[in-house]
Amino acid sequence: MKRKSSLEVARRYTGMKHIDAALHTRGESQYVDDVPPPADMLQAAIFGSPIAHGKIKKLDTLAALKADGVVAILTAEDIPGKNQIGSLIEDEELLASKIVHFHGQSIAIIVAETAAQARKARKLIKIDLDPLPVITDPKVAYQKGEIIGTARTFVLGDTSAVWQDCAHVLEGSCDIAGQEHVYLETQRARAVPMENNTMRIYSSTQSPYAGQKIAARVLGVPLHKVEVDVKRLGGGFGGKEDQATPYACIAALAAWKTGQPVELVLNREEDLKMTGKRHPYLSDFRIGFSRDGKILAYDVQHYQNSGATADLSPPVLERTLFHSTNSYYIPNVKIFGVCCRTNLPPNTAFRGFGGPQGMFVIESALQMVADHLGKPREEIQQINLLQPGDFFPYGQQVEENNVQRTWNETLNIFKFKKRRKKIQRFNASHFEHKKGIAIMPVTFGISFTATFMNQASALLHVYTDGSVSITTGGIEMGQGLSTNIASIVSRTFGIDPSRIKVESTNTTRIANMSPSAASATTLLNGNAAHIGATQILDRLKHLAASELGIQGIDNLELVDEQLLHNGHDTGWRWAELVSKAYFSRVSLSAHAFYATPDIFFDKQREKGRPFAYHTHGTAMIEVTVDCLRGSYEIDAVRIVHDLGRPINDLVDLGQVEGGLAQGLGWMTMEDLQFNEDGKLLSHALATYKVPDVYFMPDKLDVQFLENAESKLGPYGSKAVGEPPLMYGIGVWFAIREAMKAFRPQAKIAYDTPMTPERVLVQLHEKEISELQTEGEQAK
Amino acid sequence: MAHSTRFLLNNTEIDSSAPPGLLVLDFLRQHQQLTGTKEGCKEGDCGACVVLIGTLDGKRLSYKPITACLMPLAELQGKHLVTIEGLNLDHLNPVQQSIVNSGATQCGFCTPGIVVSLTGLIMTEKTVIDQPSVKKALSGHLCRCTGYRSLKQTAEDLQASLSGTGIKALIEQEMLPEWFSTVKRRLRKLNRSLQSSNGSLQNNGKPQVMIAGGTDLYVQQGELIPDQAIHVLDNDPELRGIEEVDNHIRVGALTTFEEFANDRLIQKMIPNIEGYMQLNASWQIRNRATLGGNLINASPIADMTIPLLALKSELLLSDGKKERLIPLTRFYKSYKTFDKGASEILVEIRLPQFSDTTQFHFEKASKRKHLDIATVNSAICIDVEEDLIKHIGLATGGVAPIPLYLHETCHFLVGKPIELSIIKEALTIVQQEIAPISDIRGSADYKRLLARQFFIAHFATLFPEIIKLRDLYEA
User: Fold this and answer.
1) Neighbouring-strand partners of residue B56
2) Contact at 8 Å (CB) between A744 and A559?
3) Domain A32-133+181-274 indexed as CATH 1.10.287.70
4) What is the distance between the alpha carbons of residues B250 and B241, in angstroms, rounded to a whole number?
5) CA dihedral sign, ordered A659, A662, A667, A668
6) Least confident among A5-19, A119-133, A552-566, B307-321
7) How far apart are CA A601 and CA A450, in angstroms?
8) CB contact B295 to A (< 8 Å)
9) CA angle B135-B137-B138, nearest 5°?
């Protein structure tokens, strides 16, 4: 018989549809509160602080307790264990006991028969607070010594020794805004008390282990008394990595105290007000370069607005430092970063995890260099791109040539030079409409930078009918993990994907799992699943070998459920093999473990090899700005992205496109606004806008870099979750270029987001001052 | 009298005694355990809760997608409510299949609503499935996962797999369940029975809240309304319809944005109405939001009020006994205060007839171009004869506590020629008439600037031969 080509076999799996797609389109996928409620289930609502900083003098819950349907009102005093939810640093109470540190911080839980009753009763709670000074600016916090953890500095070469040798030295600063996650499914959890003082929590979390660990701490029980189960998330994007935990704990505490199941579902306004976001940064830099634009020295200070507690701010800051030079080689670098404590909700993980902020600053610095030398931005970018063998400031070396490759392919395939000329012609012949173009390379390190977190497990069962159940520590949050896992396992076994069921993620089946984050979920859990499947497959092959009288298993393989020996059908089928194994008392289950090899990082020296590998890519973004109105349209985004060899084409493409959309939104319309009292003003989707169908360009072309297979896999794949977000940064520079074409003298601050307001106002400084004069005359 | 709301929910007749002000979304999820309809924002911005409402109008049964989070239960009286569960067949229908094929679902939370809207698009008479119409169908939906390219791609699939939009044709193409063919008959029977029992259902006590669409009211007071006695101004045919009467056009106060944009008389007056309308709300909201609601809600940035002001519309108010007519330009007094008695309701809006030379233009700025509240919006209606401005109406929103008619500027411009120097002089008057404040939608400076830019844009757009931007900028 004809031997099937491995490419043909691979196609079958890479072309698989999203495993949940059919259920999703039928509205049959269940999220936490879609599962029919157990009898007697209660609903909870949270009473949050009405101010951003203050001492609690008196809390009066009496009237609320008497309201219709209210069963209990819980405060810090009701916590049986420890009132502490900080995971890295223990600096955050579940329910504020004496002092509130941010607006919306949880103080009391109202438990009632319905959510409407709980929210109505909430209005009856009275609180008396002594206000304390509110800080919202990270530099002010820094000056007052309000920092979290320790400041960090990465050094390469010696900047102080080379400033004098630079032909030019420029200084600048950036004001980078935060970003709200807007997962469509808000934070929620359902806790069900079980026998013998145990608790089962259904949580919409990226980190079941964190939920389990912290809930156990709050309840004062060992970890094995708390089970966390997660079927899927209606989006996470980092917002449910650490910040799903408090809501799981609140549901658990309420269930513990009432002895009844309790559900907590934040509404959109509560979610927007109470949860942390992407960190805003204030960054200052100094950049020195040669006459032709070669960067010789870069000194940058990042002041991270961490919010009121540590949350994940220190590792987010760390990744800012890692990615502060993006895809460029700079021989002398000094990168300083510090987490500054303010009275905003604790800022947290968000796709990119600090990387995007670091990259925006270096891109801004390169823009200044280009302007200073009167050269196009891309020319400065190109001559400073990383080459194989170059060192990153943290000591790791560039191993592949994919920065150069994706850069060159993007410019060639998508005809950059031609487009540049076309834009020049357009701008010359149009008055108020101007076009701009920008190239955005991205280099992103893959692995948790806390080395110990790079571990994962998988539990596989093969049932006697040949169907397969698999659990991993990874969370399906839309990113397609379940699809990837099913692809990997069915491909390893050589069986049809319909035989695979990917189970919920559960702390009783997988212990101590790392969160689904850092773009590494498939790398870690997919490899664990692959190892587990290989263990079982090898047992089956050994069994078959002995039945067939074959020496060794090397020449045996399962393809399309047929056992082949040297490519020839042995007559054995998957289901038969499985059944035979069962009756032969061969184990059909496996528990497998994976730990990323060869990574380490020494925080004393701030050097090491923290990443298993880097992913790279280059985007080209074109925009048209209406300079009369300040509005703009994204005409096209074209990308060459390196994701190794795709596990699943549709899933990977969806990750690139979706990440890009979030990046574009962050740079343009997503405008978080807090007032000086630390109160969020953009607390509804009517005031916080995210990209819609009209905003995203019709011309969106994503190409995957060929022959870029990763050795670590699984199946040659590379991580894809976060890196594409950072392509969005390019849109800011494309808009800026178009603005400059309209008014070359316009002063454009390196501030984000570039809202239509910022565009119009920065283009019309002169007109605004005239209007102010006219307005004053009118008075 | 005990009230009840009777309607068809998918294939089942419902007779519900739940509060008439209860949100359809809460009714579905909490009372019916139909959890395919999701809550994403409860203010009409995300579309996760989109359902179809089928209405019998004479012999015609038509379906529109709307957001269940802004609709009171009482409004379902005599109608057909279709949720994602009601669209499911044994196998995937073509809309569902196209989403699966395109990889257009990731976390899945927004997906059921999108399936419902695309179905609503297909069920719309004479619809052409292409990228623009699919975008319109998706205009009320947020997807935070996909970036929309894959969703837009469903257009190609659907184009290829579907022909015909009638219910019969869609049943044959296995797009709709067979029982859809029985709906018209069942609704007719239900409505007859409601009429004979006098159908008055929504008054539990004296009405405290009047709802004319409710797309902003529910955003502001969503938690309060279910407990109050409501009066849904929905089923009164006298409050609907657009017709030519004597020397004006009569627009029923309950005309929805979408009906207004699709009306031939309006399209004749304002040929680009569709283009302007796309900037206002989403398809799903425009199917519910009414002109009357927009006017009486009295938001200073109301997107339909500003054009109606520039058109110098008149309002017909009635308290049931007496009617009175008032010019819209004199209607608003101060923030959310206007010349309407407590017992009066707005019955109709009268638009003056256009002459052959009348021109209209609308401008709007918002953070996001579509489905976003205006920072500043502005409309002009102008009649130029023999090079002189004969009539002009100008209105700007977001620059004062009320939707602002620019009385002084209009007064100045009447009788003047359209010239750069006149426009420049008028710009100063505009600035004197407005008094913007800084808020979440923009700084006062930005709003002043927008008022200026839009004033220029009106003339540069309508009279490009005379008013050239280059001259304004380079002078």
Assistant:
1) B61
2) no
3) no
4) 8
5) positive
6) A5-19
7) 8
8) no
9) 65
User: How high is the pLDDT of residue A4?
Assistant: 47
CATH of domain B237-474: 3.30.465.10
In percent, the amount of chain A with pLDDT more than 70 equals: 98
* Two tokens, residue A278: 């992407």
In 3D, which of A480, A482, A458 has the Cα closest to residue A471? Answer: A458
pLDDT band at B211 (very low <50, low <70, confident <90, very high): confident
CATH number of A6-28+455-595: 3.30.365.10
Are the C-beta atoms of residues B35 and B104 closer than 8 Å to each other? Answer: no
Predicted local confidence at residue B222, as pLDDT: 75
Q: Are A538 and A553 in contact (CB under 8 A)?
A: yes
pLDDT > 50? residue A399? yes
Q: List the structure tokens of A615.
A: 């992913």
Residue B317: which H helix or E strand, with range?
Answer: strand B314-318
Residue-level pLDDT at B126: 83
d(CA A743, CA A765): 11
For B252-279, what is each residue's pLDDT tens digit?
999 999 999 999 999 999 999 999 999 9
Q: How far apart are CA A228 and CA A251, in angstroms?
A: 12
Domain extents for chain A? 6-28+455-595, 32-133+181-274, 419-445+609-779
Superfamily of domain B89-176: [2Fe-2S]-binding domain (1.10.150.120)
Q: What is the ipTM of this complex?
A: 0.97
Please check the confidence at residue A2 and state whether its pLDDT lies above 70: no
For residue A710, the SS3 value is coil
- What's the mean pLDDT when you consider all of chain A? 96
CATH architecture of A419-445+609-779: 2-Layer Sandwich (3.30)
CB spacing of A685 vs B43 below 8 angstroms: yes
Window B:84-123, CB contacts with A under 8 Å: 84-85, 88, 92, 95-96, 99-101, 103, 105-112, 115
What is the residue-averaged pLDDT of chain B?
93
**Band (B209; pLDDT cuts 50, 70, 90):** confident
Residues 200 through 229 of chain B touching chain A, CB cutoff 8 Å: 219, 223, 226
Give the residue-averaged pLDDT of B6-16. Answer: 97
Candidates 3.30.200.20, 3.10.20.30, 3.40.50.2300, 3.30.1490.20; correct CATH number of B5-86+180-232?
3.10.20.30
Nearest to B145 by CA among A478, A484, A231: A478
Structure tokens that stand for B226 in this block? 């279910």
Q: At A397, list the tokens.
A: 């070396």
CB B326 within 8 A of CB B339: yes
Is B472 touching A (CB cutoff 8 A)?
no
